[in-house]
Amino acid sequence: MKGNIVIIGGGIAGMEAAKSLISLGYSPIVVESSTKLGGHVASWYKLFPDMSSAKNLVSRLESEIKGATVLCGTKVISLNRLADGYSLKLSNGSVVNASALLIATGFTLFDAKKKEEYGYGVYDRVITNSDLEAWFSEKKDARVPDEPESVGFVHCVGSRDLKACNAQCSKVCCATAIKQAIEIKERFPYAKVYCFYMDLRLFGKKYEDFYINAQRDYGVQFIRGRVSEVGETLDGRLQIKAEDTLSGKPLKVQLDLLVLMSGIVRNQSIGELSAMAGLETDSDGFLRSIDNEYAVIESNRPGIFYAGACTGPKTVPETVAEARSAALAIHSYLETL
Amino acid sequence: MLCTMIYEGKQRIWSEYQKDIPDDRWYYVRSCIRQNFFPASEKMFTEITRNVLGKDIYETPHHTTCGGIAYHCDTIPQETAMTIVARQFALMTEAGYENYCPSCITSFGNYVEILETWREYPELEARIREDLWKACRREFNKPRYLAHSSDLIYRWRNEIAAKATHKLVNGRTGEPLRIVEHIGCHYAKMFPSKGVGGAEYPYVLAGMIESWGGQVVDYPERRHCCGYGFRQYHVKANRGYSMSNTYKKFESMEPFHPDAIITNCPGCPYFLDRWQYVIAEQTGKTYGENGFGIPVLTYEELAGLVLGYDPWDLGLQLHQVAVEPLLDKMGVEYDPSAKYLGLNREDIMRPELPGSIKCF
To answer: Is pLDDT at B269 greater than 70 in this prediction?
Structure first.
């Protein structure tokens, strides 16, 4: 069994870790609950800040993990501690013993229907960031009008929101909103595009440039204030109310499309896994690292490691870096057995 | 439902905000102001619930204001309002009832807020119990169920529909009447889980409209305050805000051509009704057809029309905006010459009719 590694989750964290472990001489098993690899990134169109293709990243990683055993459409049913590792029963009926586990289960997008005031699922022209990415890829969504005159983006939908039971910042939504606003302007240059934000949290390399480009080169208007309610006019357009807190004035805008930047919440499988493996969860519901400064990838259980958004919201570069780091940590751990 | 919205989306939200409303034995408390504004509404509530539906609705002349207006105007502290409410509950307890039904939306919000505050701070409830005992030697049980009187009509809306003599259907065209439903701000905006349908898309009045054959108008300013807002109207210097709120709502609903508005709050029907005249005087604009306004009714008045009561027995002659266009659409028979005859058939005098908005 020594050297057996199971990676739970086949998103970019799991795939990148598998790739690194293959290069270290291991043959990991990747268990993915959905029918395809790539996680959320697989359904995204472009990545910020370089506007590179998300699908290309996933395809490249897929080609680089040929040395792994990939089990898509498979879930972990039970997990037991052994003297020298773990025994996992999978939904395909097989039992796998592993010396080390990597949890890379990622995140779930906040269900925008819970913010009833924004009217997702009630008003036809209200969509989410995820819906818009799918439209960028496939151009198939009747909710997106052919020639929108005005488009709004609402930041922090289900993030930094105690009423939504998620006090944490989702970290990637501000940059995603800017990316999507630019993409809308590229397709519809004459559309007015508004971003309604609480604070703009643009901490990553080139993110600030991205923000300035959106304003200077694309004319995206940033309004510091939250949208309070959404209604529908007789012709099916949206009327939104917000407050511009910088000018101290309430405002009302009619839009052809409203995009809700659904935040990042914990993946539901975290609850099941933490119960099965005795893993601790944090106050935000994500898995608790033993140390948030120095050992984010380490769990409270021997031989179980973390990578990516199972411990909290992460960008793609952070996720990839954590995955590589976790692969090395697993290698070091196995050397000690 | 007018507009292109996804009706199933609303149904999903409605299904998440349902509340237990017992079928019988309610202790009913009246509003401070409704009997002055729309004098037959509360009478019609007891008439329909007791005599048409056969329910046990108890009320006592010993109850007082709930203190809600003074509380929301910041003229009394919440502890005072709590002690007043504690006395109301004591009267309910002494009468042997467990289900409490206020007629006023602000009262309903006040009761909900106080019960929730006591749940969070039981030591405060204990202090209020002590204060009540010291003040008037009374004790109380908290209500087992709390529902606004519109919740009860909602609960029995299908029974009313089964006994209806008129539907919310335009007799000339056969089309459902387009009805705006306006919910009092204190109904569910503070505690969404306490209202039927929640705060964003309340179903309490929409359910009545649907059951009685009408079509709900969802217009952009649906959630907006009617314009009453205690600090808008009761502070005289702020009355311009009151008017501008109402104006905003009418401008927003105008393209949908509503046939009527129904409300479940004491102040809302009054201001949506009376300010139409003031808007007409100030701007020359009217929002109904042919120079009329849009009739504004309480849900009890509408239930009374559906059940075939004489409109003048419902007090509809005391509305500013003429209700006759709605009566004609519904096919309600009425005697124009009896409009200004009182209950004893004596002349109650005719008001001076304005020139800016068409009235009878």
So the answer is: yes
% chain A with pLDDT above 70: 99
Select the residue of B2, B6, B200 nearest A124 (Cβ to Cβ): B6
Question: What is the per-residue pLDDT for B238?
Answer: 87
Work out the number of other CB atoms within 10 angstroms of the CB of residue B33: 15
Domain boundaries along the sequence of chain A? 5-106+267-336, 112-263
Distance CA B110, CA A79 (A): 52
Residue B235: band (very low, low, confident or very high) from pLDDT cuts 50, 70, 90: confident
Q: Do A116 and B9 touch (CB under 8 A)?
A: no
Report the pLDDT value the prediction gives residue A220, as an integer from 0 to 100: 98
B189 CB neighbour count, 10 Å cutoff: 17
CATH for A5-106+267-336 (3.50.50.60, 3.40.50.2000, 3.10.105.10, 3.40.50.2300): 3.50.50.60
Q: Do B200 and A116 touch (CB under 8 A)?
A: yes
Superfamily of domain A112-263: FAD/NAD(P)-binding domain (3.50.50.60)
CB contact under 8 A, B9 and A122: yes
Enter the ipTM: 0.86
* Distance between CA atoms of residues A176 and B210, nearest Å: 42
Q: Which of residues 249-278 of B touch A (CB under 8 A)?
A: 255-256
Q: B2 lies in a domain?
A: no
In Å, how far is A279's CA from the nearest CA of chain B? Answer: 33
pTM of the model as a whole: 0.91
User: B301 and B178 in one domain?
Assistant: yes
Q: Does A49 sit behind a cis peptide bond, omega within 30 degrees of 0 on the bond before it?
A: yes
**Residue B4 in contact with partner chain A when CB distance is under 8 A:** yes
Whether the CB of A121 is below 8 Å from some CB of chain B: the reply is: yes
Give tens-digit pLDDT for A55-78: 999 999 999 999 999 999 999 999
Torsion of CA B63, B67, B68, B71, to 10 degrees: -170
